[in-house]
Amino acid sequence: MATSVVRDSATRERAHELIRAYDGRAGSLGTLLGRVTPVDQVGVQERVASLSKRSIKKASKVWALDLAIRMMDLTTLEGKDTPGKVRALCQKGMHPLPGDPSIPHVAAICIYPTHVAEAKAALQGSGVKVASVATAFPSGQSFLDIKLAETRAAVAAGADEIDMVIDRGAFHSGDYQAVFEEIVAVKEACGEAHLKVILETGELGTFDNVRRASVLAMAAGADFIKTSTGKITPAATLPVTLVMLEAIRDFERVTGKQIGMKPAGGIRTAKEAIAYLVVLYETLGPRWMTPDWFRFGASSLLNDVLMQLEKERTGAYQRPDHFTLD
Known about the structure:
Blueprint lengths: L1 H5 L3 H14 L5 H6 L6 H12 L5 H13 L1 E4 L7 H12 L13 E4 L4 H7 L6 E5 L10 H14 L3 E5 L2 H5 L3 H15 L3 E5 L8 H13 L4 E3 L11 H18 L4 E3 L7 H15 L11 E3 L2 H14 L12
Parallel strand pairs: 1-2, 1-8, 2-3, 3-4, 4-5, 5-6, 6-7
């Protein structure tokens, strides 16, 4: 069981310190989650609708598009992934527009664990990180010792970041302790690698559940919380992202711990990316406007951002075949 794996570990103790800080009392998971406030669904929808109408000037738009590239986890998570496809994706991540050094590299390449070593070698010295999914992605339906072994193997192969999925079955059964202990155990298995915890918000059902799962994951030691695997619909949405950002804001106010955010799945256009950045800035402020604290999980977003960036620079759209395929 997860509890035996992490009993008396420093990681577990840090998690319980966060619970005590958030709860303000002796600190237990039950009292922590009992104090998670309900979400005003109408208020969230109205806030997102208002922020989505914001327009930004050309100079700010160019800056936002550049930032969106630097925040991307360029992703391929398909059964047909090959070493050649991963190497090509790494090249695109390092040089999104070949011949134009003014275009920044992406934040990370996100892949399955079996391709980590290949990606690590291809990205050496580039500044692009290797993110690996783990813990029986995307379902999370496996034995804990297998999940932990996969996590350790991905880190040993060179992963800088681990994207884990929570046990949604346990969450919906009300076994929040099992979800918490599993995150703590995976965090322990990550060692020095950063941990992103995927909530799979499309399966959580309500904004209240999204907020509860966000607080649970942060208390358990997540470095980032992430919306989705990208394998189900709906994936990332602006309302869900706002709920998670507000949970991050409130968690930091109480505990002093800054947590990152990664919306993933279904974000395909530059216009959508800019809308997410507006919501991010208005909710958490400038400290989060960096790849260290915000990422886009994306497989098809980069080309549209490059197209819009070229439009802002030259005044004309390029043909889609001007850019390499994702």
